[in-house]
Amino acid sequence: MDFLRQVAVDLHALRTEAKRKYPVVKEAVDRALEVLPLLQQQYAALVRTEKLAPGPGHSFFQSESVLRPFLLTCNHTNASHKILVLALSSIQRLVSWDAIEPASVGSILRVLQIQAEKTAYTDVQVKLLQTVLQLMTLAYEATNRKKGAAVARTGQRQLENELVGNEDMVMQAVWICVHLHESSGSASSVVGNTAAMTIRQLVSLAFSQVDSSPAAKRVGVLLFQDLCFISREESGVWLKRTAVSPMSAALAVELLETIVASHKGLFRLDVEFTTVLKQQMVPLMQSVLEMSCNDKHGGSAGSGITGPTNTSITSSSTNGAAGPFFPLLARGMRLASTLLCHFADCLVGECASILHALLEIIATGTYTMDVSKGPQSLSNSSPSLSKSPRALSKSPPDSKYNAANAIANFKEAKSFLAHSNLSIAGASNASGSTGGSINFVTWPVLLSLEVLNRVCQEPDVVAAMVSYPDGVLVAITRTTSSVIMTSPPSDFKPQGPDATALRSGLELLNEQETPVLQQFYMAVRVAASCQCNMAASVFELSRSTANEKVCEKLAKACVAVVAPAVVKSMNCVMRHCREVDLVTMSLKAYHVLATIASRLRANMQGQTARNTWRKPMDEVVLTCLRVLCGFSFPLPDGIRGNTKASISTTGSGSSGSSDTVGESGADDSESCLVTIS
User: Fold this and answer.
1) pLDDT, tens only, 173-198
2) Which residues are in the Mon2/Sec7/BIG1-like dimerisation and cyclophilin-binding domain (predicted)?
């Protein structure tokens, strides 16, 4: 009875406000007030007969006549602020009491959409979002409660299915949230923040019911597809009226990452979801990386490695300031990490394309989509054609971008490194009394390295990349190795009071402006971690298999790819770095490599395989043990300290020069470089 009494109070208040300006609303209120006493009498009769007061959701409360005056009020585009707040509060009360007929849901969404387009009042916009969420939660939670239970009437079952799987209803709800999010002007505003939280919950509700009916599944597929279009700043096929802003594109990418991470089994097993993911992931990632790295919304990101000039620390606004659009960049990199970690084994060509894009960003600091081929062609072509656009335009077809020429490409990018007065002045606060220039790394490069580091932590992903064509594994190991080996000694130690505050850039989801650039030490540290994680993943794979063919494949990857890059990288770290965590990381990497080689050699039972891999594996083991001994014990005969010469070792496990930069070598007292003669 209290609920009906409060509804009566709302109707009388609405009648007072509407009696002069809105006669149609006044007439609807009068009819509702005529119905209300009848409802109160029925309520009293139910209490007497059933000995229990009917609660929320009882069909007795669902009256179209009571709802109609509030809908008519919101239907007026010129309604006053006071009457809108009153009407929306009453609609919220009816929805929360589950006093809405299913047939009225579409009418409610229609008037909410009208007000979302017209009103500029902040509190009204917040109430619109709250009402949308209440309405959708009511529909989906009702389906959850009744899911699996017997439904007596077929018509009632069809009505519930239409309510949850209704494309138009979900489209209107999502459109209202997206429209208010982009029209708020700032994601940190009250309306922008509320809209973002609301659309996250709506998407979660929609995907929680994709297995309840074919209609609900279709809603999930269409919603995912349109989020992909919004992420590329295109008008959706389903959300046709949506005008997308850069802020909405970043939110759409975040939603896609959440969906894929939460429902990875659905995208792996369901044919429709697998197909739409395969069609969309490469064009989506290429477009997002190009927009964010090349700073479509704020200038040019420039080189991959740059000095800390005043324009290097940038804003993500669209005012033309230099720097990447960080919210979109961070979310795009998180999505790339999720796709690679969960689908590297089943979407080979697509994941290879994403990896090549990340490698291009590391080597050049930017990414440009190949317009001549088009984004979709890469996902449909063989992996051997999934090279980065820069490689396709500058290299012969059979070359390996960022593989054989990885170090040369990275050195070319580092030619942009600036040691200007601005860089010294800009670093003075961070470097304290050092007075020297500090090299900084741009966010696209650092985040790309962090994605590769996460990928290399997954043994299953590394196992999949072993079988990738086009030298993807080679490209990753050599490119990350080149980050270390082309860096001057000053980049191997953090400088300044804030140097110890280490945090992954992939976790900076609340940043609306580009954070301060990180010292290049962070890039060296992440690259070294990537190398060590690669070795650790191969170690886990070698421990979990005794199959001779698999062991041979891992041996080839270890000897020809992982061992040379890791040994040279860790040698460079041991030479220049005095940070405990990096030195410990290097020592563990040597130990892991030696263990891998020993185990794989022991698992090879066939004489041919043993003859083929015995010597290379022995060389890997001996190389690692010699370095460990040189670090741990007094140097025996044949091993001497040398601060100027580069490391040279014998055997295929560490062939080639270290390619270290020949600038300002470490002092004799600080060097732990060894040369094995």
Assistant:
1) 988 998 888 888 776 789 989 999 99
2) 3-137
Residues paired with residue 659 on neighbouring β-strands, in sequence order: none
- Which among 554, 379, 333, 346 is positioned nearest to 463, based on CA atoms? 554
**Cα–Cα distance, 152 to 154 (Å, whole number):** 7
The DSSP H or E segment spanning 15 is: helix 2-18
Confidence of residue 42 (pLDDT cuts 50, 70, 90): confident
Alpha-helix residue ranges (DSSP H) falling in 457-519: 459-466, 472-485
CB within 8 Å of 339: residues ≥ 6 apart: 260, 281, 285, 347, 350, 351, 354
DSSP β-bridge partners for residue 675: 640
The structure tokens listed for 435 are 């007075």
Alpha carbons within 13 angstroms on the beta-carbon side of residue 521 total 24
Q: What is the pLDDT of residue 60?
A: 64
- At 267, is the pLDDT very low, low, confident or very high (cuts 50, 70, 90)? very high
Question: With the CA atoms of 458, 464, 466 and 467 taken in that order, what torsion angle do they form, in degrees rounded to the nearest 10?
Answer: 180
Pairwise CA distance, residues 190 & 184, whole Å: 8
Joined together, the tokens standing for residue 163 give 């309510």
With contact defined as beta carbons under 8 Å apart, do 231 and 249 qualify? yes
In 105-236, alpha helices (H): 105-118, 122-146, 154-165, 167-183, 190-208, 214-231
Percent of the chain with pLDDT over 70: 70
CB-based contact 260:274 (threshold 8 Å): no
Q: Are 73 and 108 in contact (CB under 8 A)?
A: no
The encoded tokens of residue 372 equal: 């001549």
User: Is residue 112 a contact partner of residue 132, using CB atoms and an 8 Å limit?
Assistant: yes
CB neighbour list of residue 669: distance below 8 Å, 6 or more residues apart:
none
Cβ atoms of 297 and 291 within 8 Å: the answer is yes
Please count the residues of the chain.
677
Helices 580-603, 607-632: inter-axial angle, 10-degree rounding:
160
Local structure of residue 559 (DSSP, 8 states): I
Residues 301 and 415 sit within 8 Å (Cβ to Cβ): no
- Return the residue matching tokens 């970690």: 341
Q: Is the model's pLDDT at 231 over the cut of 50?
A: yes
**Torsion-angle region of residue 22: left (phi > 0), alpha (psi -120 to 50) or beta?**
beta
CA-CA-CA-CA torsion sign (427, 433, 439, 445): negative
Question: Mapped to the 3 state alphabet, what secondary structure does 265-326 carry?
Answer: HHHHHCHHHHHHHHHHHHHHHHHHHHHHHCCCCCCCCCCCEECCCCCCCCCCCCCCCCCCCH
pLDDT at 99 > cutoff 80: yes
Nearest 5°: phi and psi at 622? -65, -40
pLDDT tens figures, 201-218: 999 988 988 888 888 899
The answer to whether 235 and 244 are in contact (CB under 8 A) is yes
Q: Name the helix (H) or strand (E) containing 519.
A: strand 518-519
Give me the pLDDT at residue 163, please: 54
pLDDT digits (tens, 9 = 90+) for 621-633: 888 888 888 776 5
Q: Return phi, psi of residue 441, to 5°.
A: -115, 140
C-alpha neighbours within 13 Å on the C-beta side of residue 51: 0
Q: C-alpha 429: how far from its chain's center? A: 32
Strand order of the β-sheet with 305-306 is: 305-306, 440-441, 518-519
